[in-house]
Every structure is written in C-alpha cells, then in structure tokens.
Amino acid sequence: MAENITYIWLAVGVLFLLLEALGANGIGFFFAGLGALTVGTLINLGHVAPDAYVLQSIVFFATTALWTAVLWAPLKNHRKKSSNYNNIIGDTAYVGSGGISKKEGGEVTWSGTIMKSKLAEHAGVDALAAGTEVTITAISGATLTVKPKL
User: Fold this and answer.
1) What angle separates helix 29-45 from helix 2-21, to the nearest 10 degrees?
2) Cβ–Cβ < 8 Å for 127, 100
3) Domain ranges of the chain
4) Tens of pLDDT along the chain (150 residues)?
5) Check: CATH 2.60.120.10 for 87-148?
6) Is the pTM of this model over 0.70?
7) Could you give the 3-state DSSP secondary structure of residue 141?
C-alpha cells in the first residue's frame, strides 16, 4: 500500500501540472502540483508514513503554501518581463502595400506578421512607399512606431 499512495500523490501532482500547462481555470494548480509531488517524494523517502493520511494532507497544504511563497514573486516578475515586447525595438520591418504616412499611419510587416504602424515624429519624412525598410523605434499596444532605416 505504501507504493500505491506514493504513486497516487505523484499522479495527482502530474495531473495538477498538466491542468496548469493546458490553461485550466483555477488558481494554483502549479503550486498544488508541486505540493503533491513533494508529498509523494517524502513518502517514498520514508519521511512521511504511508498510512498517515491526515499528516499527508497537512504536508500537502503546507508544501503548497511553501512553494507558493517561494515562487509566486519570481514567476509574477518573469511574466511581466516576457510580455512587454520591447525586445523588438531596433528590429527591421517593411512598409505594407498601402504605404505609410504621418497623417494616416499604415501597416508594416515584421517577422512575417502584418502590424499597424505610424511614423515616428523624428522620422524626417511625411510618408514612405510600400516595401521600404524601416526600423522599429517604439511599441504602444499593437501599434509599432517606425522610421526609415538608415
């Protein structure tokens, strides 16, 4: 029975991690998965008795809280850093088929994606023809600010 309960905890941990990976609604599937994996490991190592179900539950909730306390801030900061798209500033794009003007804006193709764009105030020109190579100088929402590539 000791091996069975170990496998149950490990399976529950993997299930929670899969739910998190698949984007299931809920808060903390990742942390609960780590907590369940921790309990399974502790049982396997002999630190928690296989028939001490109340203790296993306490350890599960405690380790879930511990994993949350340790990983919440770093993961939250990682998400903020990876979602601002500022890494494309300085990249090259190409003006779309309709051209681009300061007055109306336009579209550019960047990395195979067509995106809304506008000319930078300091671009030095009022319009650019289709196919012109441009440099991305800023991003605001889904709109790229560009200037002619030097």
Assistant:
1) 160
2) yes
3) 2-82, 87-148
4) 667 999 999 999 999 999 988 877 666 899 999 999 999 999 999 999 999 999 999 999 999 999 999 988 887 776 555 555 677 888 999 999 899 988 889 999 988 888 999 999 888 898 999 999 999 998 888 889 999 987
5) no
6) no
7) coil
